């Protein structure tokens, strides 16, 4: 599987991977790129089915999405990296922490779903809707969940959602609907920073906070006055937390 990615920062610096949310591309990490690239070799990638990455026919599984990241590390001859992910990218991070512990130093997982808390049917229905009517049919509702009304810089994210392959988006919905990463949380050994947003209606804090007591040693931060796509809407506080945890 060929994943598209962008590498920035000093060639010999420790590697940090950035995994984005459902329906977005590595462009969503624009607010993080400069500060992180001062200290790290940053690899922002597109999940399969997204951005410039390949779009194989679905359904995909969380194993597929996590395996792609391990393959990316292999292809770049990176033995070990740290990983930052949000939402779908956070779920992929949980899978990596559980299944590829020897390839990672530290994790920052923002608003990560560990299982389909609202039921698998929600994801099956969303996949069917997007296959039938395209991502344009879910854009306005998605932006309404992802940002508080006062946050205005939403057009770049709208463009990413609109440009995402319908098959890629739907197939990742199927991965989210079929996964349950809760059983192995206690076996995670890497240092994990979990971040949740106080007003996240997509992956509500009630579903993220319990993960912190199940992952040994996990640190938890709750960002006030923020909705789901918190790294994009609240870069100052998030970048501060990222640099503190990854350094
Ligand atoms: O689409 C949403 O609101 C929720 C979501 C789950 C995974 C993701 O990336 O977004």
From TrEMBL:
Residues forming the AB hydrolase-1 domain are 14-126
Q: Which SUPFAM superfamilies match?
A: alpha/beta-Hydrolases
Q: Where are the transmembrane segments?
A: none
**Highest taxon listed in the record's lineage:** Bacteria
- Cross-referenced PANTHER family: HYDROLASE, PUTATIVE (AFU_ORTHOLOGUE AFUA_2G14860)-RELATED, MONOACYLGLYCEROL LIPASE
UniProt name for this protein:
3-oxoadipate enol-lactonase
Q: Which organism is it from?
A: Kribbella alba
């Amino acid at each position: 599987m060929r994943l598209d990615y962008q590498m920035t920062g000093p060639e010999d610096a420790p590697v940090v991977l950035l995994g984005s949310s459902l329906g977005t591309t590595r462009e969503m990490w624009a607010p993080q790129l400069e500060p992180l690239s001062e200290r790290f070799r940053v690899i922002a990638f597109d999940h399969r089915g997204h951005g410039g990455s390949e779009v194989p026919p679905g359904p995909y599984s969380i194993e597929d999405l996590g395996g792609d990241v391990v393959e990316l590390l292999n292809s770049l001859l990176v033995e070990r990296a740290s990983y930052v992910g949000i939402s779908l990218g956070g779920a992929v991070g949980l899978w990596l922490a559980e299944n590829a512990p020897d390839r990672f130093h530290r994790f920052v997982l923002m608003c990560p779903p560990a299982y389909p808390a609202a039921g698998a049917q929600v994801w099956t229905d969303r996949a069917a809707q997007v296959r039938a009517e395209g991502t344009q049919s879910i854009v306005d509702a998605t932006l309404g969940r992802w940002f508080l009304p006062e946050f205005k810089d939403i057009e770049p994210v709208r463009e990413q959602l609109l440009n995402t392959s319908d098959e890629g988006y739907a197939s990742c919905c199927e991965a989210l609907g079929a996964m349950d990463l809760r059983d192995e949380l206690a076996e995670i050994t890497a240092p994990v920073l979990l971040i949740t947003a106080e007003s996240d209606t997509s992956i509500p804090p009630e579903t993220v906070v319990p993960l912190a007591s199940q992952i040994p040693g996990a640190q938890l931060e709750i960002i006030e006055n923020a909705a789901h796509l918190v790294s994009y809407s609240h870069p100052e506080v998030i970048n501060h937390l990222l640099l503190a945890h990854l350094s």
